[in-house]
Amino acid sequence: MSGTVAALKLQTCKGEPFCEAESLTLIAGAGILGDCHFGGGKGQVCLLDESCRRWMEGAEGLCLQRFQENVLVAGISSEEWRQGDVLGIGEAVLEITQKGKKCFPECKRVQEGEPCRLRTSCCFAVVLRGGTVKKGAEVRKR
């Protein structure tokens, strides 16, 4: 299984918009250098596949307008990702710690019983080995 990095984003201050980047520096055990979520935890990096991003652009829901991934991946379906998978992305190595995100009860999709792909498509990961990740870099399952 392999794909490529289609886009990179980071958020320098909570509540501020995410910024597109040509490259990100990942630090083992801490996350993305310069990102407001830097410092550890189980969700150091958020990954999303392109098909989910395209779906989100036409869908309505509470977090669909606010949710942003750090690494957008082309050529791999998130259906292939599992908790515990180890991915090589550029120079970095990540381990998926969580697949999907929780929904909020006040979301229109939840209230109307509509499916939300973020429940199953986004992944959160920790950085096992740091390094530079650039747009166009290969994403491969190890």
Description:
- This protein has helices spanning 50-58, 108-111, 118-121, and strands spanning 2-10, 19-21, 23-27, 31-32, 45-49, 71-74, 86-89, 92-99, 123-129, 131-134, 138-141.
- It is mainly beta and 142 residues long.
- A 7-stranded mixed β-barrel has the order 1-6-5-9-8-7-11.
- The termini are close together.
- 31% of the residues are buried.
- The model has no long low-confidence stretch (mean pLDDT 92).
Task: Supply the key terms.
142 residues; 39% strand; mainly beta; M1 Pyruvate Kinase, Domain 3; 12% helix; 3-stranded antiparallel β-sheet
The Rg value, from CA coordinates, equals 14 Å
Kindly report how far apart the N and C termini lie: 9 Å
What is the CATH C level class, in words?
A: Mainly Beta
Number of strands: 11
Q: Which overall shape is indicated by the principal axes computed on the Cα atoms?
A: globular
The CATH superfamily name is PK beta-barrel domain-like
Topology readout:
Layout: E1 2-10, E2 19-21, E3 23-27, E4 31-32, E5 45-49, H1 50-58, E6 71-74, E7 86-89, E8 92-99, H2 108-111, H3 118-121, E9 123-129, E10 131-134, E11 138-141
Parallel strand pairs: 5-6
Antiparallel strand pairs: 1-2, 1-6, 1-11, 3-4, 3-10, 5-9, 7-8, 7-11, 8-9
